[in-house]
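Thread: NDP complex, take 2
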Amino acid sequence: MEQTNSIGIDRYAVFGNPIKHSRSPQIHTAFAAQTGQRLSYRTQLVELGGFASAAREFFDGGGKGLNITVPFKLDAFAFATELSGRAKRAGAVNTLAAQGDGSIYGDNTDGVGLVRDIEQNLAWEIAGKRLLLLGAGGAVRGILEPLLKRHPALVVVANRSVDKAQQLAREFADLGEVRGCSYEALVGNRYDLLINGTSAGLRGEMPPLPEDIIGDGCCCYDLTYGAAPTPFMRWAASEAAWAVADGLGMLVEQAAESFCIWRGVRPATRPVIEMLRASLVG
Ligand code: NDP
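Output below.
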């Protein structure tokens, strides 16, 4: 299959709805410049229910790869003709890549992006720590396997709809000690690393956490990011967390993993995180 457009530039895009806010073109354009790769990357607003036909048109037209964001990660999972192990576990795909034989490879790079940001950029530890994950939606499902593979002492998943947290705990129980519970059930326990995987922050809200769950030296990470600290980050700082971070580093790290799948080259992420941070606050 012809994989380039008429002027020979490999084409990539991110599909979502909404999509205007996406930082992916900025990130991948920076990666391409840094690594000397010739490619184009754009956003595409896809209508609800229209993912498969839009993706088919993109790949039939010679497109090389896609990132997929809300709400199409399950559609992308169904669209892929070949899946990575971590995509199968996550039940969701955020990266599609056209292969030479015409098949479409699907992967999920969110979790590995988070783990890289936590361990390499922030130098926080996961191994041996007591982890509390807030939320039980697509993002938490995607990060569970990579986190469990770092051998934490315990992972607790707390969610408003408790059944979803318990279901996730059952699905991932073969990879380590995972428990699902309500927010109320957290009372009396302390954790070393809190990860907010709820979408509460997008509406300026905060998951209903009890007091005194922050242990000594506790680090708090919010998957959500923005120009200002999120409500969860502000709460963590007020509870005297040892360190607090947002999900901008994860965003860049998951993009770097996608870029590596597509181009076979790993870009340096730190300068891109710094560039993005400056453009967010600037
Ligand atoms: P989903 O819609 O799949 O799940 C949302 C989760 O948030 C559910 O568990 C829901 O609980 C919970 N929730 C929503 N509002 C509240 C509230 N007010 N109080 C408590 N819990 C609440 O979303 P995703 O999992 O896809 O995304 C979650 C967040 O992660 C988003 O903010 C997204 O932007 C971010 N994200 C960041 C990435 C990055 O690269 N930095 C990558 C992927 C996601 P319930 O089940 O009870 O409704």
